[in-house]
Design goal:
The protein has four helices and four strands; from the N terminus they run ββααββαα. The chain is of the alpha+beta class and about 190 residues long. The relative contact order is 0.15.
Length: about 190
């Protein structure tokens, strides 16, 4: 397929990140906070790059085992999610169940845990409080491409965080079962 060029935003490759991890504090400091309000809420710096983008939909040669990603075609039965307003907890749970079934079918997974879900709107979100456990939490757009371009800077999952995520999101009984030889974990976004 032909490629097109597009401008994408990436975390900048700057010397600061050699000694300080990129960070973002989700809430502004409050009068009761023990956080020093003079500390910046984030140290993220971005840069734009022109990237060639190729549409790979419908091409079978990309598999998760061979390439680390796979494109799946699926039309969700949960029709309320694109509208955001009017979405219920039941809609979110149904979507997670549908996603788990899709991953089991298409990737041959034995067990799937949908541990995270985000509703997003293309507007900046400014708020005084936030409940990250609220299944109906609406967030603004994600900033920056998630790519591992500078792997030590901004990665969704690292060699350290992957096993930690598994321990945090699997019940003890599942950990006993699925950490035995013969099983492997894949964290899918």
């Amino acid at each position: 397929m032909p490629s097109v060029s597009g401008e994408l935003i990436f975390l900048a490759n700057i010397p600061l990140y050699e000694y300080e991890k990129p960070y973002l504090v989700l809430l502004p400091p409050s009068k009761d906070a023990t956080i020093d309000p003079s500390i910046p809420r984030e140290n993220l710096q971005w840069e734009n790059h022109i990237i060639d983008i190729t549409d790979i939909r419908g091409q079978d040669e990309f598999s998760i085992d061979r390439c680390g990603f796979q494109v799946l075609q699926h039309a969700s039965k949960i029709t309320t999610l694109p509208q955001i307003h009017g979405v219920s907890v039941e809609d979110v749970e149904a979507y997670k169940t549908e996603t788990a079934a899709l991953l089991k079918e298409k990737l041959g997974a034995v067990h799937v845990v949908c541990y995270d879900f985000r509703l997003r709107m293309n507007v900046e979100m400014v708020r005084e409080t936030i409940n990250l456990r609220d299944p109906l939490l609406v967030e603004g757009p994600a900033r920056g491409a998630h790519n591992g371009m500078f792997a030590h800077h901004m990665a969704d999952v690292t060699a350290h965080s992957g096993p930690e995520m598994i321990r945090n999101h699997l019940p003890a009984e599942d950990l006993k079962t699925y950490t035995k030889p013969g099983y492997r974990f894949q964290i899918v976004k």
